TrEMBL record, chain A:
Domain N-acetyltransferase: from-to ranges: 187-331
Gene3D superfamilies membership: 3.30.420.40, 3.40.630.30
Keywords recorded for this protein, A-Z: Acyltransferase, Cytoplasm, Transferase
InterPro entries per UniProt: AcTrfase_RimI/Ard1, Acyl_CoA_acyltransferase, ATPase_NBD, Gcp-like_dom, GNAT_dom, T6A_TsaB, YpeA/RimI_acetyltransf
Organism lineage string: unclassified sequences, metagenomes, ecological metagenomes
Keyword Acyltransferase: yes
Assigned protein family: Belongs to the acetyltransferase family. RimI subfamily.
Single biological process term from Gene Ontology: tRNA threonylcarbamoyladenosine modification
Name under which the protein is recorded: Unannotated protein
The keyword Coiled coil appears for this protein: no
One Pfam match: Acetyltransf_1
Molecular function GO terms recorded: N-acetyltransferase activity
Automatic annotation (TrEMBL), chain B:
HAMAP family per record: TsaD (MF_01445)
EC nos: 2.3.1.234
GO MF term list: metal ion binding; tRNA N(6)-L-threonylcarbamoyladenine synthase activity
Keywords on record: Acyltransferase, Cytoplasm, Iron, Metal-binding, Transferase, tRNA processing
One Gene Ontology term from the biological process aspect of the record: tRNA threonylcarbamoyladenosine modification
Enzyme class: transferase
Occurrences of domain Gcp-like (ranges): 27-314
Catalysed reaction equations from the record: L-threonylcarbamoyladenylate + adenosine(37) in tRNA = N(6)-L-threonylcarbamoyladenosine(37) in tRNA + AMP + H(+)
SUPFAM superfamilies hit by this protein: Actin-like ATPase domain (SSF53067)
Species this protein is from: freshwater metagenome
Annotated PANTHER family: TRNA N6-ADENOSINE THREONYLCARBAMOYLTRANSFERASE (PTHR11735), TRNA N6-ADENOSINE THREONYLCARBAMOYLTRANSFERASE, MITOCHONDRIAL (PTHR11735:SF6)
Designated name of the protein: N(6)-L-threonylcarbamoyladenine synthase
Length: 331, 345
C-alpha cells in the first residue's frame, strides 16, 4: 500500500494528512486565512515525525483564494520533486462533496469580494468545472449548499479516492482571471459621441461581418434612451466600444466590441467594468448579457466578473447559433 | 560538509523574477532567471497577481535548470536560502513555500534571507575580498538607501533612504512620460546615450543646506519627476535624448554625492553599489570617476547580478552557513516590508 502526504490550502484552513494502508496516520489543520505560509511547513513537519516515508503527494488545486492556494501547490511540487515521488492535483471542492450523502447539492467556499467559488454535484458527481458567483445566486435556486459557510472544509483524506477516480488536475484551478489588471497603458476611455459612430461602425463590420448591425441600426441603438456608450482610443484612434441599457431596473449589455489586434489586452475588461459601474449608478438590480456558445475569450471574462449562466437562447445569433444568457446581481 | 564550501541553493521571487542560484561557498555554480516582465510591460508596471501566477508556473523548471547547470542533484544541496522579504507578499510566498518543501523533504536547513542584504551579498561571489565594513548604496525599483554594513549577516544600519519614490521607480515613471516603455531603467539608459547630460538643469532633491539637517543621506525623486513633466509641457520641441540624459544625470549625481559623502564621513573606505539601478551605465561610469578621486574602493557586482537573481540569495545563505548561524525557524513569516535590520529571518 502506498503512503500519501495530503495537503489542502484552498480555504482559510490549512490541512495536512498522511494516509497509509487505508488508515489515517496523521491529520491536523490550522485555521487562519492569512497564515498558510507559516502553518503548512509546521504541520507537515509534525506529520513527518509520525511517518517520514512518503510515496505520493496529493494537493488540492483549488479553486480557492489565490495566495493560499499557491502556498500548498508550490510546497507540494517542491516536496515531491526533492523526494523524487509522484505529485497529483485534485479539485478541493470534491473533497468537501465526498462527505455529503445528498442527491443534488452545491459545494461553495469563500472567494473574497463577496463572492463564492462553487460546483454542483448530482449523485456524487461534479457537474462541470468550478465557477464563481455571488452567494445570493445559489441561494435563489433552492438546492442545499455545503461548504465553508457551514464550517465544512476540504477533507484531505478524501483526496486519495478522488485521485484514484481519475479526476485530477495539473494546473491550479483559478476560475477568476487576475483581478488586479490595471487599465491598459496608453489607452483612453471616454463616453461615445456622434463623431465616433463612423469609426465604431468600421470595427463593428470587421468584427461581425454580415451579422453586424447596419449603420441605421447602429445609429438607432446609439440614440436610444436610458443607455450609456463608452469608447476606448489609443493614439487618437478608436479601438473599442461598449454599451449598456437600463431596461426597467435591469441593465442589459448591448455590445462589447474590441478591434482585431487589440483583444486580450484588458480593454474589454475595462469597458465591462465601466458598464457595470454605470448600471450601479442607475440602481439596476442586475446586469445581463448574451454571449455566443463557445466564445472562449468572452465567457471566462464575464465569469470573472461574477456573471453566471441562467439560460440559453436558441438561434439567437442566427439558425443553429445559440446564445448563453448570463446575469450578475448588483445588489 | 565544510561550512566554507557548502552547496547552497537560493530562491528569489520577491517581484517579477523567478530565480534560482546555486553556490559552493563563494563560488557561483548556477544562476537561472525566468522573468514575467513582458507580461507586465503591457500594464506599465508589475501586476502582483500576474507575477505570483508566473512564479508558480516557472518555479519547478527554474530549479531543475539551475541544478542541471551546476551538474548537481537536489540531494547534493547542503542548505537552502530564500528571499523572505521585502517584496510582494503573494510572490514571496511562492518562493518560501517552495523552499520549505525542498528543505523539509530533504531534512536540510533553510535560511529565510533579506532581499536587500542579498543584493549586497552577491558581491561576495567569485572572489575572496573582505566584505565588511562597507557603505552600500542600494538602488532598485523598490529601494534607494545608503547602508552602513558593519557585518552583513548581523549588523547593518540604514543611514538614509528615499522619502518618496525609489530611484528605479523614478526611472519607470519618467520612461512612461517619455513613452520609452517599461522597465524604464534600461530604456532611459539607452536613450540618454545620444543626449547631453548638462542640457537641462533638473533639481537635485534634498541637497540644499536646510534639507541636509534632517535628510543628510535621504533621497527624494518626486520633485525631479514633477520638474521633468513641467519641462516637457513648457518645451514642446524638446530633444528627448537630452531630457533622458539630464534626468539620469540628476538621479545619478545625487545618489553618488550622498553615498561617497557617507563613506567619507564614516571613514569606511569601501563603497558597494548594488540593486537593479547599479546596472545603469552612467551610474557605473560616474561612480568609478568620483570614487577614485575620493580614494574610495568601489565595488559593483557584474551587470547580470545587479538585478534580482537567485545567486544573491544563495550567496547570502552561504555567508550565514559559513558564519555558523542557526537556520530560520520552520514556518517563518514572509514579510513584505521588512527592513534591512533583519538580515536572516
Ligand atoms: Zn531587488
Amino acid at each position: 500500500m502506498r503512503t500519501y502526504l495530503l495537503i489542502d490550502t484552498s480555504t482559510s484552513r490549512t490541512s495536512v494528512a498522511i494516509v497509509g494502508d487505508n488508515k489515517t496516520i496523521f491529520l491536523s489543520h490550522h485555521d487562519g486565512a492569512l497564515s498558510h505560509g507559516e502553518a503548512l511547513p509546521k504541520l507537515v513537519a509534525e506529520g513527518l515525525k509520525v511517518q517520514s516515508s512518503i510515496d505520493e503527494v496529493i494537493v488540492g488545486m483549488g479553486p480557492g483564494t489565490f495566495t493560499g492556494l499557491r502556498v500548498g501547490i508550490s510546497f507540494a511540487q517542491s516536496f515531491a520533486f526533492a523526494r523524487g515521488i509522484k505529485l497529483t492535483g485534485v479539485c478541493s471542492l470534491d473533497a468537501i462533496a465526498r462527505g455529503i450523502p445528498d442527491e443534488d447539492f452545491f459545494v461553495a467556499i469563500d472567494a473574497r469580494r463577496k463572492e463564492i467559488f462553487y460546483a454542483r454535484y448530482t449523485e456524487g458527481v461534479r457537474v462541470g468545472e468550478p465557477k464563481v458567483c455571488q452567494p445570493v445566486q445559489l441561494e435563489n435556486l433552492n438546492v442545499p449548499i455545503f461548504g465553508e459557510a457551514s464550517n465544512q472544509f476540504p477533507d484531505p483524506v478524501a483526496f486519495v479516492s478522488i485521485a484514484e477516480s481519475g479526476a485530477t488536475y495539473t494546473q491550479p484551478i483559478y476560475v477568476r482571471r487576475p483581478d488586479a489588471y490595471p487599465a491598459p497603458v496608453g489607452v483612453k476611455f471616454r463616453p461615445m459621441t456622434q463623431l465616433d459612430l463612423v469609426p465604431a461602425f468600421a470595427i463593428e463590420k470587421s468584427s461581425y461581418g454580415h451579422e453586424a448591425w447596419t449603420m441605421a441600426q447602429f445609429k438607432e441603438e446609439f440614440a436610444g434612451k436610458e443607455r450609456m456608450y463608452v469608447v476606448a482610443e489609443k493614439a487618437g484612434e478608436l479601438i473599442a466600444y461598449a454599451g449598456v441599457v437600463n431596461l426597467a431596473g435591469t441593465a442589459d449589455v448591448l455590445t462589447v466590441t474590441v478591434a482585431d489586434g487589440y483583444r486580450r489586452k484588458g480593454i474589454g475588461r475595462e469597458l465591462l467594468r465601466r458598464l457595470i459601474d454605470w448600471s450601479r449608478t442607475q440602481k439596476c438590480e442586475a446586469i445581463m448579457l448574451e454571449v455566443r456558445v463557445g466564445n472562449e475569450e468572452a465567457i471566462p471574462l464575464y465569469e470573472s466578473f461574477g456573471f453566471i449562466e441562467i439560460s440559453r437562447r436558441k438561434d439567437y445569433y442566427g439558425p443553429g447559433k445559440p446564445a448563453i444568457v448570463m446575469r450578475k446581481e448588483l445588489v | 560538509m565544510k561550512n566554507s564550501d557548502a552547496l547552497v541553493l537560493g530562491i528569489e521571487t520577491s517581484c517579477d523574477e523567478t530565480a534560482v542560484g546555486i553556490v559552493s561557498g563563494r563560488k557561483l555554480l548556477a544562476n537561472v532567471i525566468s522573468s514575467s516582465v513582458e507580461e507586465h510591460a503591457r500594464f506599465g508596471g508589475v501586476v502582483p497577481e500576474i507575477a505570483s501566477r508566473a512564479h508558480l508556473e516557472a518555479m519547478q523548471g527554474v530549479i531543475a535548470k539551475a541544478l542541471s547547470d551546476a551538474r548537481l542533484s537536489i540531494k547534493d544541496i547542503d542548505a537552502f536560502a530564500v528571499t523572505a522579504g521585502p517584496g510582494l507578499i503573494g510572490a514571496l510566498l511562492v518562493g518560501t513555500s517552495s523552499a520549505a518543501g525542498l528543505a523539509l523533504a530533504l531534512e536540510k536547513p533553510l535560511y529565510g534571507v533579506n532581499h536587500l542584504s542579498a543584493h549586497i551579498a552577491v558581491d561576495s561571489l567569485d572572489s575572496d575580498h573582505k566584505l565588511d565594513p562597507a557603505i552600500a548604496l542600494l538602488v532598485s525599483g523598490g529601494h534607494s538607501s545608503i547602508l552602513q554594513v558593519n557585518d552583513l549577516t548581523s549588523d547593518v544600519k540604514t543611514l538614509g533612504s528615499t522619502i518618496d519614490d525609489a530611484a528605479g521607480e523614478a526611472f519607470d515613471k519618467i520612461a512612461r512620460i517619455l513613452e520609452l516603455g517599461f522597465p524604464g531603467g534600461p530604456a532611459i539608459d539607452k536613450d540618454a546615450k545620444a543626449g547631453d547630460p548638462d542640457a537641462i538643469d533638473f533639481p537635485r532633491g534634498l541637497t540644499l543646506a536646510r534639507d541636509l539637517i534632517d535628510h543628510k543621506y535621504d533621497f527624494s525623486f518626486s520633485g525631479l519627476k514633477t520638474a521633468v513633466s513641467r519641462y516637457l509641457i513648457k518645451t514642446p520641441d524638446h530633444i528627448r535624448a537630452d531630457v533622458s540624459a539630464s534626468f539620469q544625470e540628476a538621479v545619478v549625481d545625487v545618489l553618488l554625492k550622498k553615498a561617497i559623502g557617507a563613506a567619507q564621513e564614516t571613514g569606511i573606505e569601501t563603497l558597494i553599489i548594488a540593486g537593479g539601478v547599479a546596472a545603469n551605465s552612467r551610474l557605473r561610469a560616474l561612480a568609478q570617476e568620483r570614487a577614485s578621486k575620493a580614494g574610495i574602493m568601489l565595488r559593483i557586482p557584474p551587470l547580470n547580478l545587479c538585478t534580482d537573481n537567485g545567486a544573491m540569495v544563495a550567496a547570502m545563505g552561504s555567508l550565514a552557513v559559513a558564519k555558523g548561524l542557526a537556520p530560520s525557524e520552520l514556518g517563518f513569516e514572509a514579510n513584505s516590508s521588512s527592513g534591512i535590520t533583519k538580515p536572516i529571518f
